[in-house]
């Protein structure tokens, strides 16, 4: 009885925390198609201004990969009214910071300023959208920056080719088959006119969402948004091609040699549905159940108890069109990758056959409640979530009610989704091994 009361108290507490985290927002469209979302939070004298464009690696020409990520860098080069090299100086001089990031599905730019600099932030982002300077010197400069990033993140980083190799083997038709950073040969071969055409096509108001979050006056913000973004012309509507992959019906086997590692890794990857689906959210819970920390099933069994692996992990690599569920591990000698995967498969079969315990189910629910609170704990996080839920999910209200989807997932669904997607004949098995001595870098 005491345990039941404690569990009920815990559930009520997490529920009240989640309710208290409700995010208020207002959204509307400008005549040029730019979607605007406002979130007021006067708790700190800070504002976040962000623009998310619906363009990522999947929107690229297969012969010109890397363009979206390249523009993450290129659009800091300057505008008609912001001189080359001045962008970061202006931000710093006004007490702010800024950054950008790119995925397969979108590109996100943002500034964090003291709240008295909202007008400046809006002007800068409108300049980036209206009249960026895209010239040869900027392209050449950022080409070198991107090449150095590729060397650091992929070429010379231990296990840096894990995601690229999984993507290459899992997708044969969809643009998800290439990496966000793309091909350096493609970027070298691209003309200035191609970069300018890419900008004209995708970096337009009707392919973007503007989010203002923090401490601001609503009437003032709306006026400045209209003044700066309103005059920007609507772009030609973007027609996106739909790519579909044939189901995986037998195990795909691949090997990759990495000169940067000494310990081999075994990777099992399963193709999964869009992150917008309920199934993808169930897979999020399965990932946490299997390898979400040192108390998870696979970690306790394979690393702690049987000492078959140095490390094991799993994550649901969610994307707009498809996802990829990835399990990886570093076998510990004398155990082999095959032995380790045998234990992984046994645990998955249990998940597919039996319902997880009520205790494990409640632990999962608590973790997802905590994640929900953490994700909306900062104004920066809220701004990013508002943009993402609008642009990629098509429903801004998910910032408040997605947690209800996770709460409603049952133990039966966890069993059934594991049975639906996590089968040996539906996966890639990638042997990620040290390079042979003659292939190692000197």
Report on the architecture of this protein:
Belongs to the peptidase M16 family. It holds the Pfam family Peptidase_M16. By secondary structure, this protein is an alpha+beta fold. The protein folds into 2 domains: 207 residues, Metalloenzyme, LuxS/M16 peptidase-like (Cytochrome Bc1 Complex, Chain A, domain 1), CATH 3.30.830; 185 residues, Cytochrome Bc1 Complex, Chain A, domain 1 (2-Layer Sandwich). It has 16 helices and 11 strands. The chain has a 6-stranded mixed β-sheet with strand order 1-2-6-3-5-4, sandwiched between helices. Strands 7-11-8-10-9 form a 5-stranded mixed β-sheet, sandwiched between helices. A hairpin with a 4-residue loop joins β9 and β10. The longest helix has 20 residues. It is globular and about 65 Å long. The termini are far apart. The N terminus is likely disordered.
The protein's oligomeric status is: single chain
Residue share in helix: 40-55%
The helix-strand sequence is: HEEEHHEEHHHHHEHEEHHEEHHHHHE
The helix/strand class is alpha+beta
Query: Tell me about the biggest sheet?
Result: 6 strands, mixed
Major sheet: order of its strands? 1-2-6-3-5-4
Share of β-strand residues: 15-25%
Total number of distinct structural domains: 2
Topology:
Elements: H1 2-20, E1 26-29, E2 35-40, E3 46-53, H2 67-74, H3 87-93, E4 97-102, E5 107-114, H4 118-130, H5 136-155, H6 162-170, H7 184-189, H8 192-202, E6 208-214, H9 218-229, E7 252-258, E8 265-273, H10 278-291, H11 297-305, E9 309-317, E10 322-331, H12 337-353, H13 358-375, H14 379-393, H15 398-408, H16 411-421, E11 427-434
Parallel strand pairs: 2-6, 7-11
Antiparallel strand pairs: 1-2, 3-5, 3-6, 4-5, 8-10, 8-11, 9-10
Helix pairs in contact: 1-13, 4-9, 10-16, 11-12, 12-16
């Amino acid at each position: 009885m005491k345990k039941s009361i404690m569990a009920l108290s815990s559930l009520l507490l997490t529920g009240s925390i989640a309710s208290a985290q409700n995010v208020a927002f207002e959204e509307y469209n400008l005549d040029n198609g730019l979607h605007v979302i406002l979130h007021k939070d006067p708790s700190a004298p800070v504002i976040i201004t962000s623009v998310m464009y619906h363009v990522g690696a999947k929107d690229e020409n297969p012969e010109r990969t890397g363009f979206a990520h390249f523009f993450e860098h290129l659009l800091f080069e300057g505008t008609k009214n912001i001189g080359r090299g001045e962008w970061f100086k202006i931000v710093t001089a006004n007490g702010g910071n800024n950054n950008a990031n790119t995925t397969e599905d979108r590109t996100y730019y943002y500034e964090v300023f003291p709240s008295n600099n909202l007008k400046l932030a809006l002007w800068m982002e409108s300049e980036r959208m209206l009249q960026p300077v895209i010239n040869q010197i900027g392209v050449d400069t950022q080409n070198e920056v991107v090449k150095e990033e590729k060397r650091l993140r992929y070429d010379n980083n231990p296990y840096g080719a894990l995601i690229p190799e999984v993507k290459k083997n899992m997708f044969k038709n969809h643009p998800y088959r290439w990496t966000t950073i793309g091909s350096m040969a493609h970027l070298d071969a691209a003309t200035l006119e191609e970069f300018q055409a890419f900008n004209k096509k995708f970096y337009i108001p009707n392919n973007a969402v503007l989010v203002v979050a923090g401490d601001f006056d609503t009437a003032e913000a709306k006026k400045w948004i209209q003044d700066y973004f309103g005059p920007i012309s609507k772009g030609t509507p973007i027609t996106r091609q739909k790519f579909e992959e044939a189901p995986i019906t037998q195990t795909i086997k691949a090997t990759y040699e990495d000169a940067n590692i000494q310990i081999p890794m075994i990777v099992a990857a399963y193709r999964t549905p869009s992150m917008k689906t309920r199934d993808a959210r169930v897979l999020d819970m399965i990932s946490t159940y299997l390898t979400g920390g040192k108390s998870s099933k696979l970690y306790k069994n394979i690393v702690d108890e049987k000492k078959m692996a140095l490390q094991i992990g799993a994550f649901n690599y969610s994307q707009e069109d498809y996802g990829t569920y990835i399990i990886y591990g570093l076998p510990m000698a004398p155990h082999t990758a095959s032995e380790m995967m045998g234990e992984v498969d046994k645990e998955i079969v249990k998940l597919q056959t039996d319902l997880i315990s009520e205790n494990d189910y409640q632990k999962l629910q608590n973790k997802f409640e905590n994640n929900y609170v953490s994700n909306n704990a900062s104004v920066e996080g809220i701004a990013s979530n508002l943009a993402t839920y609008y642009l990629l999910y098509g429903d801004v209200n998910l910032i408040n009610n997605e947690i209800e989807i996770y709460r409603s997932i049952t133990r039966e669904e966890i069993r059934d989704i594991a049975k639906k997607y996590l089968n040996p004949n539906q996966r890639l098995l990638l042997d990620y091994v040290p390079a042979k001595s003659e292939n190692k870098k000197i």
